[in-house]
Amino acid sequence: MPVTSRTRIVRDFDPHAVRALKDSSTKNLLINGPTLAEHALRLGLVGEIVMYICPVVVGEGLKFLPDGLALELNLVEHRRFASGVVLLRYCMV
Known about the structure:
By secondary structure, the chain is an alpha+beta fold. Helices cover 20% and strands 23% of the residues. Strand 2 (73-80) and strand 3 form a beta hairpin. The longest helix is centred in the N-terminal third of the chain and has 10 residues, at 15-24. It is globular, with a radius of gyration of 15 Å.
């Protein structure tokens, strides 16, 4: 992800800072990566999940969602691309 004047890279997850940023922002915020997103998901700071499913099996890597997390999701968008990639966008119920 390219760094722009509107981008901040933060190495540690501070739930109070994320909540304050979310409450004060008029724009959407993006948390990228399953390790960082796990913290935000568990604390209820996420309103939407976007998944790109790629037609490639690797066999290893990080899980998309953490163990023990139960979420009610509502599918609000789905799209299939010519490459076989599928986009799934869910909002929290």
